[in-house]
Amino acid sequence: MFILNGVNLPNPNAYSQPTEVGGGYVTTLLGGTRRAIRYKKKTYTLEWSNLSVTDLANILSIYNLDTTVTFVNTDLSVNATVHIDVSDRVITPGLAEYSGQYSIILTEV
Fold this sequence. Notes:
There is one protein chain. By secondary structure, this protein is mainly beta. It has one domain. It has 1 helix and 8 strands. The chain has one helix spanning 53-63; strands at 2-4, 7-9, 14-16, 19-27, 33-48, 69-73, 78-86, 102-108. Strands 1, 2, 3, 4, 5, 6, 7 and 8 form an 8-stranded antiparallel beta sheet that branches. It is elongated and about 65 Å long.
């Protein structure tokens, strides 16, 4: 189950959560290599091929809050504070009740 700011989201057609690692490698005076990690952040991407107009309106109302929100994925025990980015919507002609293809990108704070 996917929950964004207390609102249940429909199951996406695609879901990913890669980890961004900030930092780099440092060569020591003795010639060794050390990895200096400054931070780790996850990015959660949810994609739908036929998102309903109602679900899209719910997502956009949360996006329009213009603040960080809570994202929960109960299947993977994820509970994170995130920023929301939304994709352009691809509309499928003839399906008035659906908004077409849509995705959101959630970046950990």
